[in-house]
Amino acid sequence: MQSGLVLLVMSLLVFVGVFAIGNPVDILINPDADQAEIERAIKALGLDKPMWEQYWIFLVNALQGDLGRSFVFNIPALQLIWQRMPATLELAAFAMFLAIFMGLPLGMIAGLKPGSWIGRTIMTGSILGFSLPTFWVGLMMILLFAVYLGWLPASGRGETVDLFGVPVSFLTLNGLSHLLLPAINLALFKLSLTIRLARAGTREAMLMDYVKFAKAKGLSNARVILVHVFKNIMIPVVTVLGLELGNVIAFSVVTETIFAWPGMGKLIIDSINVLDRPVIVAYLLMTVTMFIVINLVVDVIYSLLDPRVRLGDLKS
Amino acid sequence: MSQSELTLQVEDLQTYFYTREGAVKAVDGINFDVKKGEIIGLVGESGSGKSVTGFSIMGLIDPPGRIAGGRIMFNGTDLVKLPEAEMRDIRGKKIALIFQDPMMTLNPVLRIDTQMTEAILAHEKISKEDARQRARDALGQVGISSPDQRLKSYPHQFSGGMRQRVAIAIALLNKPDLIIADEPTTALDVTIQAQILFEAQKLCRETGTAMIWITHDLTVVAGLASRICVMYAGRIVEKGDIDEVLDDPRHPYTYGLIGSVPSRNKRGMPLYQIPGMTPSLLKLAPGCAFRQRCERATDTCLVMPEPQQPQPGREVRCFHPYGGGGE
Ligand SMILES: Nc1ncnc2c1ncn2[C@@H]1O[C@H](COP(=O)(O)OP(=O)(O)O)[C@@H](O)[C@H]1O
Ligand code: SF4
Ligand SMILES: [Mg+2]
Q: Could you tell me which residues are beta bridge partners of residue B15?
């Protein structure tokens, strides 16, 4: 119900927004075309009607699952996005995977040995990851690994294979090599965030009575850290990163553009350039839907991790 | 008394925290012993070094803290010198610790059975099922009904008193020789406190487990311990048989503590309160640490008083102790 309202408001904003930017006809139609031709095109695209009517038509169609056809490709906007979505999701998932599996151990080490050189090095790295702009790091990575060292390719998806009917890159060596640079680029910010969360959580947990009590039971350090501390820091890490997953997908716009990764992010930039309104609207609605779904999933995972939430009694 | 009857013998223990502002002498040269099956009380205001004493015995002093000197003889072994790996075998197996706040000592995201069986499996190679069985028995022992079901619960599903029982059950799992109970009933209401005290006493009598009962509340140890050590600013200022100390306190600090207990006061009289506050351990002036708050202080007290023995088994660290029941 609430989600439906969010979607409605979103669609209206986007619709008006795209209207305000400019008239797609100017970009889409051959400037040499004569007046009659232009008018026919405008009619065909439904752009001759007033805005509110266009919006109404859009709404009615949208409720039937039709978000319009791309002005440029002349196929349904949703279908266009569907085609590009796997690439973006793969990139985002791989980036999250890197962020979590590198960030958790690094953050825990930094939290256990805050004063040591290794702890300081990790924190310096995470500050850099936070403060350097994504596009700049991306360009530097291309310069270093693709141009100068020639180790990794700088653009495209590489070879893909189908996994359950969806093309993926990470299962071929060539595809993986294409995936690596953009994924690292996209992961950098989340990695820094994970390191911070894990470090703060570890430092806090180490001072808690339950850690002292666990040690007093004669448990090994490994068990205290990997079970007692780890399970507790997973709660904030999963919650925050889960919510960040939506951001990763949205932020992939920058990375996809730099690395010419054929995902939704690149599609939306291209579509904005030509004011391909149905695609823009469909993309944004899709993204909002994704955010809503992700929030739901995070809530479920969160309650699985934290038994106090699971039973719904936050009072105690 | 023969050496073998002593479970624990703390000799001149010093535990210091080396902070940026200087060394905090949280425990500064304390001596006491605990016999097999005996309960001794360790009493003092908050910040006097009681918990640090307990953690020192467990070998759980974290940097910047360190045991700076002394010996902790446990069943004939000096724990201070013991390597960490061997200390870990003793922790939870031979010496168990119970903490003040039962809300905080159990890990909120682990099930009770996990937290109990891991304490057994850390020390013994037995099957998970056997460990579970023992955990169940221990829960029954501390009076928790339907233990099978309770094992599958999480800590937040228990009340404070129940949680403390679980913590006690965990302490009992490996049948330790010594239990250090650090204010275990402070956070609980009076009825539950009384139940737990009663059970603790019964337990020590039945199993021969020795116990150090740490508290800031004299009334708690009055009916529980056989001997008492009164701590002030990292030192033991008075030590002796519980009844003797309570009936006839010698040290002005003990005297003040007893005066501030309601039940021991004459009805209608205003409660006595020791003036002033616990001094900062960081900038402790030389001489008796209680000097600024003491009614009997003189210039003599500008040097540190050494312990005297007014009678056998009794020790007082004061130049001008109250004498033999006269006052
Ligand atoms: N980690 C620490 N760093 C510095 N000082 C500490 C630390 N832990 C304890 N202390 C000092 O030791 C003193 C005694 O603490 P504690 O043993 O907890 O007192 P209590 O008798 O209330 O249990 C405190 O007043 C504090 O100054
Ligand atoms: S030594 Fe002096 S100051 Fe200290 S308690 Fe005794 S009388 Fe008071
Ligand atoms: Mg304490």
A: B27, B67
